[in-house]
Amino acid sequence: MAASTSSMRAVRYHGPGEPFHNDEIPVPQPGAGEALVRVGAAGICHTELHLRHGVLNLGVAPLVPGHEIAGEVAAVGPGVDAVRPGDRVAVYYYVGCGRCSWCRQGQENLCRDVVDQFGFTADGGWAEYVVVPARNLVPLPDGLTVEEAAALGCSATTALHAVRSVADVRLGETVVVYGVGAVGYALIQLCRLAGARVIAVGRTPAKLALAAELGADVTINADELNPAVETLRLTGDEGADVVFELVGITETMERSVAMLRRRGRLVFIGYS
Ligand SMILES: [Zn+2]
Ligand SMILES: [Zn+2]
């Protein structure tokens, strides 16, 4: 089944330092094993700002960014029977080689021979449609909106990996989420689910208010207080069991070390 229109609107990256453009480009067509997804929601990750500013440059331009994608299958190519038009789906944005040890363990994000990363090396979700391998589609349960599902594509899964696999946050621990953005909000919720006490650090009052709404027990405005000093005060001079550093500058890295308990776990997520 072909898409009903031949061209679509897309926001595209045109190289480091260049502003994103609103472009009209052809609707991509699904080949064998692929599906055309009508994008219902696509997230904006800080990584897109890194692309825009040249912090990250993979040399592919013009490119449709957007790696947090959810929507509905619009058409499928030959040989696809796992999904069909009308299915609500989220997109997993890595296409690994499928043969290396990482891919065989289901960790395509560590593949040394990645075929494609939608939104980075191949057109992603900031468009009306995107074509991806059908095996990269995850069916959405009823009750999960496309907006919620899109965030699971990067920020929420980054947080899940950090909380469970890297830091292994435990019941009763004190955790600092140093930087409140999309990953930080997911971290706060996941740490609360793990039974931890959460201290959120930021500079923007509205973001800190949302952090509190999502479950942070304490919020610290870094413009008003030194988060390291304050964390030590809140933990009886012990320091935090776990610190997630989401900013990636020298000052926040140094303070993250200073607020850490003996044998604490410090997880760097931010880069800038
Ligand atoms: Zn991302
Ligand atoms: Zn691989």
UniProtKB/TrEMBL annotation:
Could you tell me which Pfam families the record lists for this protein? ADH_N, ADH_zinc_N
Q: Which stretches make up the Enoyl reductase (ER) domain?
A: 15-268
Q: Highest taxon of the source? A: Bacteria
Q: Which cofactor does it need?
A: Zn(2+)
**Chain spans, region Disordered:** 1-24
SUPFAM superfamilies the UniProt entry points to: GroES-like, NAD(P)-binding Rossmann-fold domains
What organism does the UniProt record list as the source? uncultured Thermomicrobiales bacterium
Top enzyme class: oxidoreductase
Question: What protein family is recorded?
Answer: Belongs to the zinc-containing alcohol dehydrogenase family.
Q: Which SMART domains match?
A: PKS_ER
| Enzyme Commission number(s) | 1.1.1.1
Q: Which PANTHER family match?
A: L-THREONINE 3-DEHYDROGENASE
Checking InterPro entries in the record gives:
ADH-like_C, ADH-like_N, ADH_Zn_CS, ER, GroES-like_sf, NAD(P)-bd_dom_sf, Zn_alcohol_dh
Q: What is this protein called?
A: Alcohol dehydrogenase class III
GO MF: alcohol dehydrogenase (NAD+) activity; zinc ion binding
Write the record's keywords in alphabetical order, separated by commas: Metal-binding, Oxidoreductase, Zinc
